[in-house]
Amino acid sequence: MTSNGVAGRTYVVTGSASGIGAATAALLRERGAKVIGCDLNAENDTDIQADLSTPDGRQALVDQVTGRGPVDAVLAVAGGGKTGLLETNYFGTVATLEGLRPLLARSEAPRAVVVSSTSSLAPADERVVQACLDGDEAAAVSYVLAEPSIGGPTGAYGIAKRALNRWVRRVAPTPEWAGAGIALNAVAPGVVDTPAASWIFASEEIRTAVEASSPQPFGGFPGRPEWVGELICWLACADNRFVTGQVIFADGGAETALVGDLHWR
Predict the structure, then answer these.
(1) Please, are residues 39 and 16 in contact by the beta-carbon 8 Å criterion?
(2) What pLDDT, on the 0 to 100 scale, is given for residue 3?
C-alpha cells in the first residue's frame, strides 16, 4: 500500500473504541488519514457516540457524520455484543452504509468495507436471513426471540453475518455502488484477540473446543486485530481500483479448512 493511497483521506470507522476497529483506526492515523471514530462507548478517541442497535442511534450517526463534511471511506466494524445481535450486526451496518452512501459518492475514490465473520459459515435459518435481506427487522428479531437457539451455537450473530455477506454480494455491483465508483467489500475474520471474543479465552476447555472447530493453521490462534486491520485498510484505500463485491476471509485458513474447494466444483 502506498502512503498516497491513505494519506489525506477521511475515514469513518464504527466500533473504533476497541478490537479490530481500534486497530484499524490506529493504522490509518499512522499513515496520515483523518479518522472519524464512532462507537457505542465514548472512549479511545471516539468522535461520535451512537447505538447502532436502534433506528434513532443509526440516524444520529449518519446525521453527525454528514455534518462533518466529505468522507472518502466508511469502515463498518461495529458488531459483536451479547444483545441486539441482528440489530447491530446487520441492520445497523446496512443503515450506516446506505445512509452515508450519498456522502461517499462525492469522493474521488470512495470505498466501503464491512466486517463479517467466519461465523457466517455456520448453518443459518433461512427465514431470518431472508427477513434481514427484505429489510424486515421486526420479523427477523421475532424469529430469533421465538427460538433463541436458532442457527446453532453462533445464533443470531452468525445469521447476521451471513445475511451481511449476501447483502454485499447483491448491492456491490449495482449502479448505486459500483456505478458510482464505490468499492464495497466485506472482511470476515476468524477468531481474533478482541474484547468481543474474550469469552472464548475464559477457560481452556472453551478455547480448545473453538480452536478445534475453526482451525487457523496460518498465523496461529487467536489472530491479532492489526492483521485484519491491514486488509481493511488496503480495501478502503485509493489504491484499490479493481476489487469489489468480495467477502474475504482473514482467518488463518479457517474457511479453507472448513469449506475446501466447494465453491469451485
Answers:
(1) yes
(2) 57
Peptide bond into 148 cis (omega under 30): no
Which stretches of 86-223 are assigned E, i.e. beta strand?
A: 111-115, 183-189
Instruction: Return the CA Rg of the chain.
Output: 17
* Averages of pLDDT over each 10 residues, the chain, 265 residues: 79 96 97 96 83 96 95 94 84 98 96 96 92 96 81 74 98 98 97 84 87 89 95 98 98 93 83
How many CA atoms lie less than 13 Å away from 12 in the CB half-sphere?
33
Q: What is the DSSP string of 180-192?
A: GT-EEEEEEE-SB
DSSP class of residue 218 equals T
pLDDT at 150: 66
Please confirm, yes or no, whether 157 is among the known catalytic residues: yes
Number of neighbouring beta carbons within 10 Å of residue 245? 17
The Cα 170–Cα 176 span in angstroms is 11
Is 128 within 8 Å of 150 (Cβ atoms)? Answer: yes
* Strands of the chain, DSSP E: 10-14, 34-39, 48-49, 73-76, 111-115, 183-189, 247-250
Nearest to 87 by CA among 148, 20, 160: 160
For residue 153, the model assigns a pLDDT of 45
By C-alpha distance, which of 94, 243, 125, 259 is closest to 190? 259
- The active-site residue, picked from 11, 90, 143, 157, is 157
Q: How are beta strands 48-49 and 73-76 bridged, if at all?
A: unpaired
